[in-house]
Sequence to fold (205 residues):
Amino acid sequence: MVQAAMDAVRRHGPGVSVADIAAEAGITKPVLYRHFDDRADLHRAVGHEAAALLMARIAPELMKNREPKEHIRGVIDGFLSGVEDEPQLWRFVVHNPGEHTPGAEVVDDVRQTIASLLSSLIGVRLREADLDPGGAEAWAIGLVGMVQSAGDWWLERQTMSREAVTDYLTTLIWGGVAGVLGDQDAAGPHAPLRLLPPTGTGEPT
Fold:
């Protein structure tokens, strides 16, 4: 039924009705409500599945052993590609005006998961450079929020390609990280800033 609800959202948009969802599932509304407490409960179930789809794009990018600038680019592009491929689901979970509150915790969970991973990576690099890692979590939360806001803008405007948005955001984030570390050479477009330990070791490079 959740899959049918997702298909109904794709077909009818974020304002999809419960009747539309029931019709997509081939059942009546009373039967649908035997499985969900109310519309908010259904909204939450769809939100969790949509969040899983998005995390399936982003998580592998965080796990790859690659140059950190390419890490940044991969995570941003993974997020934007998820939004681009499922725009109606994204709008339903994040921006559905009638059901924003019930789904808000789903969005918060995804944001917090990504931010926690980024915070850990940033903290490792700061400690390696003998710098105060106290701001790592705040920076990670800020970065996630910036990319989400830019993704919302891009989804609605489509004034440039996904590749261009990814390049702009990567350049901004990369320059900021290099500036915090006081490494002017690292701000160059090809300079490496290693945040992840190499595969098979527990020590950062």
